[in-house]
Amino acid sequence: MNNLPKLNAALSPAPHVFPGNGRRASSFTTRSPAARAYKRKLELSGTTSPPQSLARKKMELPPWASFVGIVLATVMLLKAVLGRRSRRAYNLPPGPKPWPIIGNLDLMGALPHRSVHELSRKYGPLMQLRFGSFPVVVGSSVDMAKFFLKTHDVVFTDRPKTAAGKYTTYNYRDITWSPYGAYWRQARKMCLTELFSAKRLESYEYIRAAEVRALLRDLHAASASGSGSGRAVMLKDYLSTVSLNVITRMVLGKKYLDKEDGSSGTTPEEFKWMLDELFLLNGVLNIGDSIPWLDWMDLQGYIKRMKKLGKMFDRFLEHVVEEHNQRRLREGRSFVAKDMVDVLLQIADDPTLEVEMDRESVKAFTQDLIAGGTESSAVTVEWAISELLKKPEIIAKATEELDRVIGRGRWVTEKDIPQLPYVDAIVKETMRLHPVAPMLVPRLSREDTTVAGYDIPAGTRVLVSVWSIGRDPELWDAPEEFMPERFLGSKLDVKGQDYELLPFGSGRRMCPGYSLGLKVIQVSLANLLHGFEWGLPDGVTKEELSMEEIFGLSTPRKFPLEAVVQPKLPAHLYAAEA
Ligand code: HEM
Fold it and tell me: Which among 38, 456, 516, 566 has most CB atoms closer than 10 A?
């Protein structure tokens, strides 16, 4: 650093310096009047060479000085020219003016999807933001969703590198955060052909039926312990248990988290906490992800939490993989894959794999499947019941449909769902107003692209606000109203083809578990409505029921729903096994 002033001096043209003061030869210039006079004097004396003393001084300069000078001057010039040119060349979409360092982070409230929604109302359906050092583009219309997820899907298939991906999902070795490339493509292929094939999902239907039945039994027992008018239950606890049991039985082969079986070293309560924490930490705006040079300070304490959580999951997953490997060893040639971890371990052993899959990959994929399969379904059903408690007339219509199609002598099965359009409409309406991932999972552009005359440079983070699309008054009548009827007789579906309704995203990065998620949501909700009368606890009116949310990778209720349940089917149905 101490050499800087000297270097600056060496680089400055210093036209005012008269030669002979020993500063530098390049000051022997014709620009200053004194120098010009001196040059003329030399010319007049018949010589253009500087005096000996000056020539000697020139030779005393280090040989690299002029070279370094030229290089640095060129770099500075290029930087200035290119900087100006790149600013001019990119015609970025409209958006609020960013501050130095923080960009537009000051405009993000505790619920970023709502902040983004408000901003896009002002700046339009394609909006440019800056989160710290990174450009962010938000698409919040059907056209923009199509542009990002369909027309140019392949350009936007990458994910940004976040601290959550690094610390909670084995350094981006899961599916959700793994960068675009052969590893991720192989993982998606595995989902399509092995893990979520129609055949495999069907083969696990008995598990879903048994666990939904257990939910109904538990709720029945809880209601019986109350007075004659039913008892208030914390619904999310029951819903998380059913999704967790469904997914752990499908993925891990057993519940693992049985209260009686303490071998996994993790209790069900602890595991549910881990999942909540995982979703929260994977969705938060961690400052270091936007301003990398502040990362080491961990100002919000998120990284510390991520590291702790990563270790907790690893302890559990190590136990799971070890147990599965032991069975494979024990059974040798007679071994048959029973669950998704078995399938993953078999795939990892395949020598013809395009990209190597190691133990870390198996643990990362397993964690992705458990997390993806548990939280989202429970959150969606909890929102559905919350909306219905505010509109008992909708419960009445659903009950009418269930009584007519199913009757009061049996439970609803997955095969009944196509005959229950009103229940299906409730699910769609819930996903319109409460998409689990309101801005999907962030994507990253891999190349420069152009849309509507605006440029989206490579390296831009992309958010698609399905939350805004679900509330767009151009698309929906009374968008804030919960009205399942809007879907009756409509062909709109949630499977990624209709850009008005994208709770699972669309395109190459679309949720691979969507059909499993939908099945669990539909069959649990249908049976909850079929088996119970629903009400609010004493003293809570439907107007008072809070619909506040918290933000993370999923967007659950801020205050878990407490509801009063009262069985309405014959008692023996609740006791029966599936
Ligand atoms: C209600 C149920 C569910 C909802 C609403 C949901 C929603 C989503 C959304 C919005 C995405 C991001 C899509 C994008 O980036 O465009 C996603 C990705 C993903 N979901 Fe789901 N999901 C659900 C159930 C499941 C289930 C049951 C599983 C697995 C058992 C699962 C596994 C995944 C995985 C692995 C990804 C990452 C895909 C990738 O990056 O390539 N999800 N999900």
Answer: 456
